[in-house]
Amino acid sequence: MGDEDDAGFVGGRKACGRSRQGSAGQQAARAARQVLAEEQTERALATVYLLQTAFNEALAAGAEVPPVDPNEPPRNRIKAQLLAVGTSTRLGPDAVYAVVGEWGGLLGAIGVPRMPTECSLRRLARQANELALQLRRWADDEPSDAAIQARAIAQEAERAGAQARGEIAIIDRYASAPAETIATWREKRDTLRALVVRLGWTLNGWDLCAARWRSAAQGARDEQLRAVALLLGMLPQPPELLAAPAAAPAPSWSW
């Protein structure tokens, strides 16, 4: 191969390397955009359902709502809901709008009870329990010491799942009395934010553990043994101190 051929060969390899790096970067960018889109969707859904829950409570308490034509734009229905909730909380519609938007931003990854969509942290709490069940079943058929390791991982997954369910139940209580929460939001906001952060730390890392086992469960026994050893070293350890979370942006509603 001559010098010119060598130069062409090396240049081609560099171009291929740049192409692969560019492809990986594009995939990472797409994944990041998808995560951001999902987070925005979760926050918007949580906000809508919080307002609907508060509105239903206001109606049950006897709030009078002027009839709204179903053919009118959604913003008119939102205005009617805000006015009704404002009556039960003694706040103006703008104040209710601000509180519900901030509350929904906090609850985006958790959601609100009876939402049709299972938000990410609520789903992860369920997946931690499913991981524990799968590992225990696998350990029952595994003759090596890896069975002991799998049961130890399952025990930690069960602990995290149970703790997360308890924390979610506490967070959900705020939505069970939305008018009170909205009316006293300044007093409750920091407590609720701390609960949400605590839940995030409780489930921190279990998404990676669940995904790693899902992948290994479809493979051969050797791959599963490697996965158990890896999971044992991946067991999340929540830190002693929690950092204050960044405020989540409130969904943008057009009036």
> How does the major sheet shape up?
none
Mean pLDDT: 81
Q: Ends: how far apart?
A: 71 Å
Give the helix level as a range of percent. over 70%
Structural class by helix and strand composition = mainly alpha
State which percent range the strand residues make up.
Answer: under 5%
What's the order of the H and E elements?
A: HHHHHHHHH
Alpha plus pi helix count? 9
Low-confidence stretches: 238-255
Instruction: Report the count of strand segments.
Output: 0
Question: What is the alpha-carbon Rg in Å?
Answer: 25 Å
Count of discrete structural domains: 1
- The best one-word shape is elongated
Please, could you describe this protein's structure?
It is a single chain. The model is unreliable at 238-255 (pLDDT under 50). The protein is mostly helical. The protein has 9 helices and no strands. It has helices at residues 3-60, 74-89, 93-106, 120-140, 146-176, 178-183, 185-202, 206-217, 221-234. The radius of gyration is 25 Å and the shape is elongated.
Question: Which features characterize this protein?
Answer:
mainly alpha, disordered C terminus
